């Protein structure tokens, strides 16, 4: 298989000390600090936008993986966001990586924040996209919003991400269509879709995290880039995205206009340029 493009890299497996065997893919040259990508609710390896992964892999080593109990990784979905952070750390250690950059989207951004608290020495630079702080406003409503969007998707025969990730403007609708098409480019060796029970377990973990006491992020000094669209219906941009930026002192902010939860996919060219610049800094 072609190892230079995300849609054609082979699926790989690694077993961690916790006994879990993780499914993963890697693309780019294996040198420097690798970027480990933490994905969204219900997502498997095929849910990463290949234009983003390939755009980053031109200059970086990029690794995507399935959390335990997701895709073809073994085990069961973790009960909490904190345990998902432990899960991610176990995967990174299984690959014998001592320092990583993080690309974290949506639920992945929640997991990344817990990693920043648990093991800050492991992390070099972090991008938090389409996410908010623990206890953030409206995060406990993700189940209700997801269920409503799923019903709409079933009626209209569209991918649920059409409604969850993008605005309903003409620009948003066109971007959603293009994004879903990109996700379906890979035809061979596609990943296993998450089952219903694992998906609901992830939802419960997000809802519980959204109701928890906010974390103290003031001591975190990891360079962080916070990214979102100006109209995120899953994790409301205002106040969450701005609060997240304010709570992490060594952080900067990008807000894309006429964009929602999936702004990094809608503005993938601009995002890749900004991400490459961010990861490339000393």
TrEMBL record:
Keywords: Hydrolase. SUPFAM superfamilies: alpha/beta-Hydrolases. Residues 41-263 form the AB hydrolase-1 domain. It comes from the Bacteria. GO terms for molecular function: hydrolase activity. The keyword Hydrolase applies. This is Alpha/beta hydrolase. It comes from Companilactobacillus mishanensis.
